[in-house]
Amino acid sequence: MSHDHESAALWEPSEQVVANARVTRYLHWLWDRGVLAESYQELWKWSVTEVDAFWSSIWDHFQVVGHRGDGPVRTGGPMPVDGLRWFPEARLNYAANALRRAATDPDATAVIFRSEAGGHRVLSNRELALHVAEIRAGLAELGVGKGDRVVAYVPNTPEALICFLATASLGAIWSSCSPDFGSSSVIDRFAQIEPKVLIAVDGYAYNDKRFDRTDEVREIEAALPTLAATVLIPYLDPASAPDGLRVGMSYADLPRPGHELAFEDVPFDHPLWVVYSSGTTGLPKPIVHGHGGVVLEHLKALSFHHDLGPGDVFFWYTTTGWMMWNYLIGGLMVGATVVLYDGVPGDLWKMAEENGITYLGVGAPYLISSRKLRRRPGEKYDLSRLRGIGSTGSPLPPEGFEWVYDAVGKDLLLGSFSGGTDLCTGFLGPSPLLPLHAGVIQCRGLGAKVESFGDDGKPVTDEVGELVITEPMPSMPVAFWNDPDGTRYRESYFDMYPGVWRHGDWIKIRPDGGCVIYGRSDSTLNRGGVRMGTADFYRVTEAFDEVADSLVIDTGRLGDEGRLILYVQLAEGAELTDDLVAALKRELRGALSPRHVPDEIHAVPGIPRTLSGKKLEIPVRKILLGTPIEQAANPDSMANPEVLTHFTPEK
After folding, report:
1. What backbone torsions phi and psi does residue 314 show, to the nearest 5 degrees?
2. What gap in Å lies between CA 634 and CA 623, rounded to an integer?
3. Could you tell me if 308 and 314 are in contact, meaning their C-beta atoms sit under 8 angstroms apart?
4. Which segments within 470-628 are labelled E, that is strand?
5. What is the per-residue pLDDT across 542-594, written as a single tens digit (0 to 9) for each?
6. Which of these, 69, 210, 323, 421, is most buried using a 10 Å CB contact count?
7. What is the dihedral sign for C-alpha 522, 528, 532, 538?
């Protein structure tokens, strides 16, 4: 069964939805300026053909806080790695755009914070700006200035957001990890960028357990000789003190009351933050994004694709170690209230009701597990304020789409969203102007010239090919840290097609512009010439009630068919019986092809995943082909490294 089996649309925009959509207002705004796009597809085509005019219009339409300059939209190129610069004369600051409503709407709610431990705080625009001004002055007193790095080992709390905005306001560079990361994993990231200040919590709570992290904080500090201060937040225990730290101080001593909020004007491509690629092997790649690129991209995506603005209450389940945190806080720029939550992803539907959430973002596995648990949140809770659901992290199968409209509500837009840390956005996603079909992402994002390349490196339609981006986007990395000649940057995205970004996913672009992602192109199953992404496979195996999670590996190499091995983590109480093995094989044969019946099926205690929840397909494949475990995967970047020993060539 194909992903995009034709069926009636699950959702179609009403005339009222189209009329009220923010992207419709933009269309009308463009008409007044002589751009006469009538439909989403016409608008998309203009945005990727007239690239300079499109991104310039985003600056003007949103009235970005800053100075645009009179110069060209871009110079050099064709891609950032080739010397492309966007808006070379512009000056701006991300934080000035995030906090602009402190002056115009000071009493509106900027932030709602909830934690599983019962924590609850609300900050108005004025209060948020005040806190940022105080922390900004404290960081400046520690010597933090333009270009310095401030790193944070913190959960998703108001302090994380405040410290980030204070850092950005100074023109300093932010980088964060979640406190569930082990110390060596954090050191692998932070040591690369030689920070001046470390902000860290003493511990955190998760799933009703308390985790003291003071030893980890000491280890991290010891590995960062460039630190001028380690600021300890007593999050787990209010009595925690920065004892035993070389340059320790308490967070309570950081704010400097009475200081005015100010913003350092920086160039468009001045580094805003460093985020990291998954780091499943080798050191994580430190990816640098610029102030201007993130401002323009997040304004566009949040406003025109998710349809967010003032009055919306925006939530995405994330930690500070995943790019969705950076994306979530962008909600401030469009005037939405952002909801920060620290804890286990329990009943997020209940949280949506309690906080009046209008847009609920989750990882696709959360929707899949809600369906398996036969939850019906639309009947259990009042979700009348909910207008949209975001799903990302991995492809959402058609059944997941259908469950949302059956069990949550018929009048909301399910926004399946696909992109990556690399661009800190999704370049495939929702649109309030288009119908939605099960298993299909509605459209390519505005300004994102996503194409599918066939084996000959030419664009194909309605066929599965390599996902590429053939025109630059402002939120592409300005650089990798410590990569002066761009070698690592080029190898990561541009080695296959010069001047074209290769993302590493299989994609089919339908004639109507809808898109289907088939999983990572470098962990593809290739059986007898039939290519298939792993997402198809998981859709079949994980529909079984007995299967909690699964991993499929094709050990084939050029000239060697290899073996197709399926690993299953069984649901509680289930056993891998001969009947279950036979049923799995029968279902895979019927749904995919006879060639996709596994040669072996093994039960394992867990499926290896990264800290951000991605399955470790490629490292396990390397292990099965003989690479030692310690070379194939970095245990510190994994959520459950102990399970790797169950994946060996003998298995």
Report:
1. -110, 125
2. 12
3. yes
4. 479-480, 501-509, 515-520, 525-527, 530-532, 547-554, 564-570, 600-603
5. 999 999 999 999 887 655 678 899 999 999 999 999 999 999 999 998 877 77
6. 323
7. negative
